[in-house]
Amino acid sequence: MANPIDSPALDDSYVVAEEDPPVASHRKVGRRIGAVIILLSLTLSLAMGIGLKLPLILALLAGGLTLFVVMLAATPYLRFIDHGWWTRYEEFGNQLWGHALSQYLWHFWHRRAEATGALARGPAGPDAQQQARAAGLFDAIYREQYGPDAFMVPLTLLLFVVFFEANYVVLFPLKEMLPGGHPLTGYLAQFGHFELQASAMSGAYMFVVGDAVNSVRKRCLNVSDIYWYVLRMLLAVPIAYSITLALPDSAAVGVAFALGALPIDSIIKLLRRLVNSKLSANETDQPDPLLSLDGVTPAIASQLEAEGVSSIDQLLDMDPVLLAIHTGLPFRFILRLMSQAIVRRHLGDAAFALAPMGLADAISIARLVQDLQTARAQGQTDSPADKIVDGACQLLQSVSKAAWPDRQAVEFVFGNIAAYAYTGLLMSAGGDSSALA
After folding, report:
1. FRET partner for 131 with CA separation of 20 to 30 A, picked from 160, 189, 192, 338?
2. What would the pLDDT profile of 209-248 be if each residue is shown by its tens digit?
3. Contacts from 20-29 at CB under 8 Å and sequence distance 24+?
4. DSSP labels, 266-280
5. Crossing angle, helix 320-327 and helix 298-306, to 10 degrees?
6. Which is nearest to 83 in space by CA: 217, 209, 208?
C-alpha cells in the first residue's frame, strides 16, 4: 500500500489530488529564500552606506563582510528547509499511514478528524477516501506545527541581529578611516570595551552557527531553537559584562568568548550556581523517574522535561508526533518509550522484573496475549505462551516476595495492556509486522 502522507493536500477538503507534483519538486524553497537574503543584505548595506555617508571602500568592505557573516548563519536553515525538513516529514509518514494514522488522529486530533471524515468506521479500517482525508489532515496539522513557514519569523529576527552586530564589529575598528568630523566617529567613540563586546558576540555567533549545523545534521532543528539563538545573540554582551565585571581586562576578553560559546541553558545553570552561592542555598537533585525507562539518559530526560514531561504518566498523555518534533528525538524511539510507559502504568516498578524476558514493553506483551489466545482457541493448555506467562508470574512474585500476583492476575493485567487503546496505536504504527502484510 502506498503511503498517503507522502502526498500533501492542497485544499480545505483534505483530499489529495492525483495531479499533485511530487515532493521533490517542492525542495527549492531554500534557494529562493537564500537569494532574497542576499538581496536584502546588499540593499540594507547600501542604504546604511548612503545614510551614514560612508566612504565607498569602507561601505564595500563592511557590506561584503556582513553578507558573508549573514549567509554563513543562514545556510544551515536553507539546507534544512530544502532537505532535512522533508526527511523528517517522511520519517513520520513511514510510521503513520492507513489504520495507524486513523488511530493517531482519533487519539490526539479527534474533533478535527471527525469534522473532516478522516476517521475509520468499523473493524475493516479506513477506506481509500478516508485514508486520503487523514493524510491531508495530518499534512495540514504538521505544517501548522512545524511547517517551513514557521521558521521564517525567527530566522528573520536572527539574521537582522547578526546583520547589525556584524556591522558594528566591522565598522568599529575602521572608524579611523572615516573623514574628520564624521558623526559616526563620535557615536562609536562612546562605546567602550570593544574587545570584550566583539569577543562575546563572536563566541555567541560561533555557538549559534555550530549548534545549527549540528541540529541540521541530525535533522532535529526546531523553531524554538532559532528563538533561543536570537536571545543568545542579544544577551551575549550583557552576560559577558555581568560575569566578567570583577576580572582584569586581559582575562575578561577570553572569558567573554567562552561564555558566548556556551548554550543558554548552561549559562542559566552557571548564573543559578552563582546566585545560590551568594545566598548560601543548596540545590537538591531529585531522582528522575524517566531514567527508569530503557534507553533514557540524563540528556534525553532533560529534553523530555523541557517539553513538560517529568513523569511516566505524562509521557502517555503527550502527542508522540509533536513530542518527537519538539525534542528532536527519533519518532520510533518516542514510540518505544511510550510502549514501556504503558507497562509501567499497569505494573509499576515491578515492570523492571520483566525486562530479562523481553516483556518490558506493551507491544511484546500484546503479542504474547495474541499467542496465548491462539493457543486457547486451539485447545492447548501448555503452549510456549503459557510457559512464558508462568515465568513472568514467578518474576513478579520474586519482586513482591509473596504469592501475589498469581497466574490469573498476571493474565488479567497482560490482557488489559494488550487491550489498552494506545497499545493498538503502537501495534498498527509498525510495532506488529503482521499488520503490514
Report:
1. 338
2. 999 999 898 888 888 889 989 999 999 999 888 888 778 8
3. 23/86, 23/90, 26/86, 27/82, 27/83, 27/86, 28/82, 29/81, 29/82, 29/148
4. HHHHHHHHHHHHHHT
5. 110
6. 217
Query: 161-214: per-residue pLDDT in tens?
Result: 999 999 888 888 777 777 766 767 666 666 777 888 899 999 999 999 999 999
CA 89 from centroid of its chain's CA atoms: 12
- Which of 426, 191, 214, 200 is CA-nearest to residue 320? 426
What's the burial of 319, exposed, middle or buried (CB within 10 Å: 0-12/13-18/19+)? middle
Burial class (CB in 10 A: 0-12, 13-18, 19+), 311: middle
Identify the three-state secondary structure at position 432: coil
- One-letter identity of residue 219: R
> Structure pTM?
0.78
3-class secondary-structure state, position 245: coil
How does DSSP classify residue 430?
A: I
Distance separating alpha carbons of residues 109 and 41, to the nearest angstrom: 42
